[in-house]
Amino acid sequence: MKNATFAFMKLVLFLCLSVSLLHSVENDRITIQTGYSALLYQHIFSFQTSSAFEISASKMIYQNVSGQTGVRIGLDPVLPEIYIRAGVKHEIKRWLPEAGLEIGYSKRSRFKNEKLLLSEIQNTMDKDIHPMYLSFYANPCSFKISKSISMRACEIQIGSHFERMGRTVRIQANLFSLGVSL
Questions:
Q1: What's the domain range around 165?
Q2: pLDDT of residue 134
Q3: Which of 96, 93, 98, 35 is nearest to 67 (CA)?
Q4: Which of 85, 50, 80 is nearest to 69 (CA)?
Q5: Maximum separation of any 2 CA atoms in the chain, in Å
Q6: What is the end-to-end Cα distance of the chain in Å, rounded?
Q7: Considering its fold, how many domains does the chain have in total?
Q8: Burial code of 34-51, b = ≥16 C-beta within 10 A, e = fewer?
Q9: Which residues of the chain have pLDDT under 50?
Q10: Is 137 exposed, middle or buried (0-12, 13-18, 19+ CB in 10 A)?
Q11: CATH number at residue 152
């Protein structure tokens, strides 16, 4: 019961933060993006990779500050991840570079049981990883194709988990994403 209440409270907090980031009187356009990404978790004893489909909504909050919220659905196995981010975005003709911070909750944060590792090492790795993470992202390859369509590729994120920060490294690459402004 305690875990269900905690999970519900995190979901409500995430939804409230998402709505507050996307609410703005300055710019009424919301951009819906969908794409494909790859994730690498690195620990001193092992690493784990996975891929995911992503859907997100973003909006300019204030001048060059953008807010974004989204969901990633991991593949093999199917595991969810939700995130919220804020970044600085510039528009230079068709080029739209962006950088900022992302906070998320991930069920994809896990290491497979390795047969070659001792159970003590596996237990240590499992304790070092936590579902809440913080990462820095940079998106230098984002371009406006038309007035309402944008494309981005090769976005990189580097971060770690809140609990025992730095013991695991989270590296994610958004390989390709397409966006439509509404």
A1: 2-181
A2: 92
A3: 98
A4: 85
A5: 56
A6: 40
A7: 1
A8: ebebebebebeebebebe
A9: 1, 24-26
A10: buried
A11: 2.40.160.20
